[in-house]
Design brief:
The chain is α+β, with helices and mostly antiparallel strands. The protein has helices spanning 3-11, 34-43, 64-73, 118-136, and strands at 20-25, 28-32, 48-51, 54-60, 78-83, 94-100. It has four helices and six strands; from the N terminus they run αββαββαββα. It has a six-stranded mixed β-sheet, sandwiched between helices. It starts with a helix and ends with a helix.
Length: 137
């Protein structure tokens, strides 16, 4: 299963609905969609568009302990997961590492202003380039 599908599955688990969900993949913990919006607004992390209407924010693994302290200081509930690619040959593709129960998270936006986002800009730029090529024919 692809990473975004796994993230969606984890976020939609009933026990995670009111949590900031961070998922380790490689050397980063990622907040995707609604979690990226929360990370941007509460902690000033820079979001990156990964597909249309979906942003992500990254926290380096080496900084996660310090970052969790910041999350706790803001009284935000968090669930932290580890993601395994199929190459890891684990029984499951993810597992819960830690759950901290504080105040529930109430965020449902998955991205910011899409007219200004980098993914939308790239897509429009590609479309404009294709139109220019057709005009030259």
């Amino acid at each position: 299963m692809k990473f975004l599908k796994i993230v969606e599955e984890i976020q939609n688990k009933p026990e995670n609905l009111d949590y900031l969900v961070l998922i380790r993949c490689g050397i980063f913990f990622y907040g995707v969609g609604k979690d990226a919006v929360l990370l941007k607004e509460q902690f000033g992390l820079n979001p990156i568009c990964i597909s249309k209407n979906i942003c992500k924010c990254a926290i380096p693994v080496i900084k996660i302990d310090k970052f969790v302290r910041k999350i706790i200081a803001k009284n935000i509930s968090v669930a932290i997961y580890d993601y395994y690619s199929k190459k890891a040959k684990k029984e499951k593709q993810y597992e819960l590492l830690k759950r901290i129960i504080l105040s529930p998270v109430a965020e449902d936006r998955k991205c910011f202003d899409c007219e200004k986002c980098s993914w939308n800009f790239k897509q429009n730029n590609l479309t404009n380039q294709a139109i220019e090529k057709i005009k030259k024919l």
